[in-house]
Amino acid sequence: MNFDASILTLILLIPLVGAILLALLPDKGKLMPGVALAVTLLTFLATLHLPSHYSYAALPGTFQFEQNISWIASPAIRYHLGVDGLSMWLVVLAGLLAPLGVLASWNAVGSRRKTFYVLFLLQQVAMLGVFLSLDLFLYYAFWELSLVPMTLLIATFGRTANRRRAAIKYFLYAFIPSAILLVGMLWVYTQTGTFDLPTIASKHLLTGHPAAMWLASLAFLVAFAVKVPVFPLHGWLADAISEAPTAAVMVLAGKLGLYSILRFSFGLFPAESHRIAPLMLALGAIGIVYGSLIAITQVDLKRLAAFATLGALSFITLGIFTFTISGLDGGIFHILSESLSGAALFILMGLLYERYGTYDIRDYGGLASKLPWVVTMFVVTTLAVVGLPMLNGFVGEFLILAGSMQSAFAHHILWTTVATTGVILSASYMLWMIQRVFYGDIGYKPDTVQAPDLDLREHVSLWILAILFLVMGVRSTFWLRAIDEVGVPLAAVLPQPQTPVKGFAPDPKVPEAKLVRTVSAPQIAKSTPQEATR
């Protein structure tokens, strides 16, 4: 059967129907996680239809598997879904993380399982809807929907009495900028008469007074930057990650905000995005170092991982705002890479918490002799996080730094140098964490609590991710082929504005209109190190 015409709706409907089914079933034994696992696996299988039937011969900038149906006549709102090289892999990523999240929660959620898994499936529906929607109004509906289940998951299933405060902080940080985003979308509609993103972008319908365009672009960018989060808008991140259950924290940060910047900020406001790029490059570089330095000081595993996540997301922010092909390709690839590495790290930390009831590093020590498989997976994940060559983290970081060095904006060498120190710092705090938790003298918890090593369910979850680390590291072109179709069009640098952001003037040595790269990321991946450097 040919599912091309309806596969995107099917991807949305499976977890939605699954959530309704779970709400009707009794909460007995392992029925809830069992049904949730079946639903998420079925959703993941449906998402695999996209890369297996994706046409690489299609013109860049076009969407595939489209469904475009009139929904509301006035205002003109359409049920418009579609994917390209950017959203396709993010949909597959969301499909993969869901069953892994269910497996990670199998024993961790001991009560109110029905509530947990219904909210978890609704969160998946919202994420998939954000990645698939091409109508601004439809997109906004899924964007707002994503706030509700995540807030309830943190408030209901957080690990300490601070969970409600963390949930409220997360909700307010995300909701207030989202209200401003809605105002920006309504302004776009008044200027163009449509919410349809491809129509607005392809026909260049969005015009207006420069000040109005600038304010509208900021309404979009700030809402997305908070959700990433971009430094210094990260105030919610540490508390939310510290409190959120493992399955929720795996999809909490980064993906929705970064995708939205690439899709909507760059798609609707290209000139304004170039104008703000020097500032975003600076914030990205500062965020890398800031996140790393704060992570070094942490004694709580979850908070260490939270600031490590901030550093990784700042790396991606730096890459996409270089507006070079390798920077954009590396940034998009690193969204996938960081999501998988982060998921493995949070799963492993959750396993330690299940066994020993603490995230405090000071309670551990000497675990390597007691849990050899756990330490093996921790070391593999750590090497992926710090960017060891031949693993997934190296590809994105290399392309981002290469693109940053070739950026057309002023001070790019300074920010690249600052960002490079983050690579060293990330290795420092991650390897120090491994040393403190698994080596040295036996700590209080390992000495007093007898805990088992990995079971079959945990082996399956972690080995899937470990294999992906290696495959993405040595065969990155499989992903970059589609990603490059998005990176190349976005990398054409527009003429610099006459009134640049104060303190971030364009480099006078660089021509105003210039394509900053002539080779793509897949070509870099196939080249030798010397050729890649050139």
Could you characterize the architecture of this molecule?
It contains 24 helices and four strands. It is mainly alpha-helical and 534 residues long. It has one domain (3-492). The strands form two sheets. Strands 1-2 form a two-stranded antiparallel sheet. Helix 5 packs antiparallel against helix 7 (147-157), helix 8 (163-192) crosses helix 11 and helix 10 runs antiparallel to helix 13. The longest helix is centred in the middle third of the chain and has 32 residues, at 325-356. The protein starts with 6 loop residues before the first helix and ends with a helix. Residues 495-519 and 528-534 have low confidence and may be disordered.
Main traits of this protein?
4 strands; globular; disordered C terminus; 534 residues; mainly alpha; 4% strand; two-stranded antiparallel ribbon
Q: Which runs of at least 5 residues are low in confidence (pLDDT < 50)?
A: 495-519, 528-534
Q: What is the percentage of strand-forming residues?
A: under 5%
Number of helices: 24
Mean pLDDT: 86
What string, H for helix and E for strand, traces the elements in order? HHHEEHHHHHHHHHHHHHHHHHHHEEHH
End-to-end Cα distance, whole Å, is: 48 Å
Look at the helices and sheets and give the structural class.
mainly alpha
How many structurally independent domains?
A: 1
Radius of gyration: 22 Å
Helix amount? 55-70%
Q: What gross morphology would you assign?
A: globular
Kindly report the spatial arrangement of strands forming the biggest sheet: 1-2
Q: Kindly state the number of beta strands.
A: 4
The main sheet comes to: 2 strands, antiparallel
Pfam family, one: Proton_antipo_M
Domain NADH:ubiquinone oxidoreductase chain 4 N-terminal: 57-128
Transmembrane segments: 6-24, 31-50, 88-109, 116-134, 140-158, 170-189, 211-233, 245-264, 276-297, 304-325, 331-353, 373-392, 412-432, 460-480
Domain NADH:quinone oxidoreductase/Mrp antiporter transmembrane: 133-417
